[in-house]
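Quick one, tokens below:
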């Protein structure tokens, strides 16, 4: 669990530092758009009140608290899961990514009422209208990692 905690803290801090730097330091909240390496990498301010791609978006306080509760529930589930059936090294790192990213987005909802998304990437004639953040990348990578590197199921099984 120590490795999971360290990875989660590192991801959480990296997410929060990048959000603060981009949204406040570069003033993206006011500027709304900064071209970095167009079209491959751009900064586009988007306040996400819902889940991925703005699904279930609503500025209602109930939506905000439901999404915070769901994120914290997922974190709790992952913690219990990896304690009961610890995965290997890559699985533990993946769990840390997912937990750190989820907590980063929870903090956004608590501070701003929405998640601060700002990364926008397009390529090869495809114009991506969506924005995301470091926490979103970590959640996605962590979830994929937990699928690819699950526990072996050895803990909890009786020896025959």
């Amino acid at each position: 669990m120590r490795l999971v905690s360290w990875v989660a803290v590192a991801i959480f801090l990296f997410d929060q530092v990048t959000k603060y730097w981009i949204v406040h330091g570069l003033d993206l909240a006011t500027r709304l758009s900064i071209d970095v390496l167009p079209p491959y990498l751009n900064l586009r301010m988007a306040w996400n009140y819902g889940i991925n791609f703005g699904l279930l978006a609503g500025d209602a306080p109930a939506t905000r608290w439901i999404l915070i509760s769901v994120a914290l529930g997922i974190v709790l589930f992952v913690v219990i899961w990896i304690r009961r059936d610890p995965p290997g090294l890559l699985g533990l790192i993946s769990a840390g990514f997912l937990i750190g990213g989820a907590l980063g987005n929870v903090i956004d909802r608590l501070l701003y009422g929405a998640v601060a998304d700002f990364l926008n990437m397009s390529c090869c004639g495809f114009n991506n209208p969506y924005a995301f953040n470091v926490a979103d990348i970590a959640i996605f990578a962590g979830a994929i990692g937990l699928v690819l590197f699950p526990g072996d199921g050895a803990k909890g099984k009786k020896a025959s």
